[in-house]
Amino acid sequence: MTWISFSVRYLVNVEDLNNVESAGNYVRHRRAPIVVKEDEKTYTVTYVPAVSGEMIAHGYQANLADLATQRGLPVEDLAKQGVLLKRGAGDEVHNSNCKDKKGSDYELCVINEDVVEDVAGFMNPDKLIKRTSNIAFSYMIPALDAVKASAIASQFQVRYATKELIDTHKNENIQSLYNVETASASYVLSGYLNLDGIGITQNYPIKEAEKREERRKVALDSLTLTLTQFLFGAKRSRYNPLTEIEAIALCISEKPFNIPPINGDVKEYLKLVRSTAESFGKVLSIKAPAIAFYAKGVEGSVSNPVEVFEEAGQ
What we know:
Layout: E1 3-15, E2 19-23, E3 26-29, E4 31-37, E5 43-49, H1 53-70, H2 77-80, H3 103-113, H4 115-120, E6 122-124, E7 129-131, E8 135-137, E9 141-142, E10 151-159, H5 163-169, E11 176-194, H6 212-228, H7 236-239, E12 242-253, H8 266-284, E13 290-295, E14 306-311
């Protein structure tokens, strides 16, 4: 098995990647409750700005569809347009040849038609077929050591319209004042990619899809593109956030091993991950997971990022 887990820490200023609702002329940013340890005996709950894993997964799948199309791999027509409408109770909206197939043959047919559903899964209750996603993303939330430095504030906006347009539509609200919440924080994101689950059915009998190695490569390249270029989230045209990668941790293992989110001192974090990886390998009698770690200014030099590559057990 080839299991890849990751954690990325971003410094993000002035973003509106994930708002959830509007009340009148006020648009709210997504928030999430998190538990923070104040001391040895005290925990507190606080609400912080957040970006949902669903939002991040949408960005990844859109990038996957684009990259797979460029490389000549099969992508379903709606996915090419950024409409990620997976196979559900009915296949009528899809240009598909899979409608009359059943069981593992149906799953194989679907993933042969669409790399996105191969990597990110689908479920069709009518066919009694479920394909679990091979890619997973956490919510993106402020790092626990930087919770108090996160903030949400509203920005005043004006929607302008001419008098002629207002008179034509007989609606004075065409021109209006409104406020949009923006957030800034040192965010952490974690997740995993099961490379061995790509290009092969999950329902028995197990069957392999076409161009399996090319599918695995494009899934990994799309993850690299998504994480390093911060290609996810909404409202990018006018609220494109000012983003800096503070640290990235990447782990490759034979069995599912998920590294923790990057919180606190990076040297202590790396020590913890290495120790856990070594113990994991010993317990399962396998090679210890390999860890690659990048942190800006790990040696105290903010202007000169350094790379630290560590392999547990060596």
